[in-house]
């Protein structure tokens, strides 16, 4: 009877411990999702005080550390977690930490591990493709992006990145082909439009480039670099009034953009509006765009007229 009682007590004790850890872990998950990282850390530390080898707690704790900016602590917890279980997510997070440090070889090692543990892991292929790109292994990078697209044909990102690499190695027609595939896959892919426009500009296909830039603008109307490129393309096409409008949009978004004032001034010169041009050049100069003073000397300083002596 005493032996049976002891067994019952031990079983209840173990069960209580499991419930306790599970409850605290759920609390930690909730706090993490709500952005209360210090609270999440408290619950995770309580779990690990009881048992320092709780895999889930170590992995979640590493994610909390990452949110708090403690990358070394996150990496330490993940390495400990991997001594308990070979997990593709843990390898992937370490790979991302290494990538942030530009430690490409370490990142590649852990991405290889992550993919070998889960061959259907799309983010693993996307990130490994990016690492291969960073170290100049373009063929391997292309192969991983192709694999990522095969795993999810609704995702245009791999196609856009394939286009980027082809553009990088000078295969412009291939680049345009893959940007087009990306746009057909996802008509809201900003980067595909923007990058295809740049390829068209290199081929001096200004109208095609402008069409893509305007499509990109419909997706993101607050991108100042995009607006500059639209305005510059219009200038190449001698569409000065619309270029003026584009530079005005930039100034509306960023009233201290000295380059926009200078460029709008140059467009005003083309439109024969010298007074407005000089106002723009003066504003650009006052904001620190020193090239504007050359425009002021050229267009705004009246040379004294020479009178004949009687």
């Amino acid at each position: 009877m005493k032996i049976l009682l002891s067994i019952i007590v031990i079983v209840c004790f173990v069960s209580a411990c499991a419930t306790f850890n599970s409850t605290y872990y759920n609390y930690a998950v909730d706090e993490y999702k709500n952005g209360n990282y210090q609270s999440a850390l408290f619950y995770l530390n309580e779990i690990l005080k009881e048992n320092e080898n709780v895999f889930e707690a170590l992995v979640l704790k590493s994610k909390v550390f990452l949110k708090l900016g403690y990358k070394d602590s996150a990496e330490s917890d993940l390495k400990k977690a991997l001594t308990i279980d070979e997990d593709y997510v843990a390898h992937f997070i370490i790979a991302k930490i290494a990538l942030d440090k530009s430690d490409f070889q370490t990142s590649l090692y852990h991405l290889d591990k992550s993919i070998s543990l889960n061959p259907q892991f799309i983010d693993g292929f996307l990130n490994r493709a990016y690492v291969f790109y960073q170290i100049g292994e373009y063929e391997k990078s292309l192969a991983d992006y192709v694999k990522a697209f095969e795993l999810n044909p609704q995702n245009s990102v791999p196609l856009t990145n394939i286009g980027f690499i082809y553009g990088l190695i000078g295969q412009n027609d291939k680049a345009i082909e893959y940007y087009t595939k990306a746009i057909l896959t996802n008509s809201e892919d900003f980067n595909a439009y923007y990058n295809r426009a740049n390829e068209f500009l290199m081929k001096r296909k200004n109208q095609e480039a402008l069409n893509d830039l305007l499509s990109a603008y419909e997706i993101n109307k607050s991108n100042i670099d995009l607006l500059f490129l639209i305005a510059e393309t219009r200038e190449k096409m001698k569409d000065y009034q619309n270029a003026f409008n584009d530079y005005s949009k930039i100034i509306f978004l960023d009233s201290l953009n000295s380059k926009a004032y200078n460029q709008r001034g140059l467009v005003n010169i083309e439109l024969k509006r010298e007074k407005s041009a000089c106002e723009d050049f003066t504003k650009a100069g006052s904001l620190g765009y020193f090239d504007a003073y050359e425009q002021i000397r050229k267009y705004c300083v009246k040379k004294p007229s020479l009178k004949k002596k009687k």
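The chain has 17 helices and no strands. The CA atoms of residues 262 and 281 lie 5 Å apart.
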